[in-house]
Amino acid sequence: MESMDMSEYAQGQDETRKEALSTLWIIFTKIGKGKDGVERAACNFCSTDFAIGKNPKSGQSYGTSHLSRHVFICKSFQMSLLSLEESSSLTPINQNTHRELLGEAIIAHDLPFSFVEYEKIRVWVKYLNPCVEMVSRNTTVSDIEKIYDKERIKLKEIMGRIPNKICLTSDVWTASTSEGYICLTAHFVDENWKLVSCLLNFLRMKPPHTGIALEATLFDCLKQWGIDKKIFTITLDNASANDNMQDHLKTHLRVQGNLMCNGEFFHIRCSAHVLNLIVQEGLKIASEALHKIRESVKYIKGSDGRMLKFKDCVEDAGINVGGGLRYDVSTRWNSTYLMLESALQYRKAFEFYKVADRSYRYCPSEEEWERGERICEFLEPFYDITNLISGSSYPTANLYFMQVWKVQCILEKHQKSIDKVIKDMSDKMKVKFDKYWKNYSVVLAFGAILDPRLKEKFLKFCYSTLDASTSKEKLEKVMDKFKGLYEEYVSCSTNQSVSLSQSSCEFNSLAKLPREGNKAKKSKIISDFKSWNSIESRFVPEKSELDIYFDDELMELDEEHSENFDVLLYWKLNEKKFPILSIMARDVLSIPITTVASESSFSIGGRVLTKYRSSTLPEHIQMLICTRSWLYGFPENINDEEDINTMDECNTEMTMTQHTFGLQD
């Protein structure tokens, strides 16, 4: 028994020696015989070689003990062990996740594809974690294409599931490379009753930019997305090519028989563009009155030395406001308002500067400053209205009627102004207003009706305020159109047919009740009569959803917090009460009254497609801009001030878009 134990012990010792020897040869490598004919092995870390074989001359044999001793004194080996310990303490890297996050960073921050190949970026990443594998730009493009495809399929499924229609906006843009692009944006209320605005396409649009060519491109996009049978409206600016395009597109969609009311409400004009045309008309009159104020701002901001001197004047005048002076650009009327507002804050500082700088000859007189204040007060509500209707994250269709009515009231009020400049501005603007908005958009008036705070009573109030003699006729016209659209939704709904079929089934089951004797017959007659009476009462016309909606009391209208009212939340909570009307509300309230969402994509496009990245393929431009829209939405606040302040008074190219707030009359 003891002999067996000893043999097992000896066997275990041999295995331990073999294991140690095998580990040793990971650190050392046999390099063959040396000059003395003895086998040698070199350390893999410091390259020192050692004899390990038998000397043929002296017969001396070399074991591996000296190799083991070297392991403990080899500094290179010790340093590699320390590095190995540090790397093992790092967070494990999932290379697929790393590449996906890298692709999303390029999309979100408008980075070039070559970003992944920047030498210092690679050095920095390797320093953070040596395990990270940085890929090439071609691999990055492939990774971003996967993100694009995944998000595109997700969006297509969402649009396919919703029970309501989809509204569109579209615009054409000329990039800094002189290439034309067309974008198509979808607006709809999703399954959770949230307004979704997302870019569908951002395509290279080669000349000619005719209505027929634009329509062919857009219709092809709708077919690819599978939404050509779900379109409700399209919002466009005032370009003549857009008018022609929407005619062809409406005809194309009408053939399929899927446009509500045969396309009567299909075309929506961009309200921001119309308002711009109206205000620009007034600014032509005010331009001379504002000349000195505008030239003063240009003079001060014309050099760094003047700005520093003006800063001292601001301190001497005791003015403590932020923001500074702002340039204005003729193509953006709201920049004129911002310029005027900023200059008025530094009115006293200009007086100080007039004394400090003998070359300054543009200082306005008291009368000119006062006129500037009146013009600024006159323009302020138009500026506020423009900001309000230009949102894309909340419904704007229910805001249209009230805001257009406000504009009309403001113009008619100031047509009686004692200030000749304000009066002349109002007269000119009223002519332009009548050209576009004399007859309010009917389908956008529906948005006010579907606002539970306003309904048809608000329309009646507005029409009566403007002209009591025609208010009844105008209201009846709008309500007839509204009821006509509602009836079309009723005819498209299967709710009514389902309830009728259920009633029919109940009647048939009652007619087949078994008869049991005279007593049963008598009771059967009574029960049949009760059943008949019950069924008969079901067919008595009940109030429609429309009647119930109009009979409900108006919700309280809080003027101070009216902008925070969530009209979609109301319809979400009352979806079961108004199953048909709620679908109609989904469509009407998702109509964008401006093309600002599309123009926001041009702002992104201007940062993606620059003169330094002009060789980027059009399909990659679309991939980057659309995926950014899907993942992060549109930029809510485009910094006009930043864009304006980087422009001089000469014809500096605007990188955002050549169609911003439609220059075509």
Q: What does it look like?
A:
With 665 residues, the protein is α/β, with parallel strands linked by helices. It is 60% helix and 8% strand. The chain has 27 helices and eight strands. The protein has helices spanning 2-27, 65-73, 75-88, 95-108, 119-128, 137-161, 211-225, 240-255, 271-289, 291-300, 304-316, 333-345, 347-356, 366-389, 397-414, 420-437, 442-449, 455-466, 468-492, 495-511, 517-538, 545-551, 567-573, 579-589, 596-608, 618-632, 640-645, and strands at 28-33, 39-43, 49-51, 166-174, 180-189, 195-204, 231-236, 267-269. Strands 6-5-4-7-8 form a five-stranded mixed β-sheet, sandwiched between helices. The radius of gyration is 38 Å and the shape is extended. The N and C termini lie far apart (111 Å). 30% of the residues are buried. The model is unreliable at 495-522, 536-540 and 637-664 (pLDDT under 50).
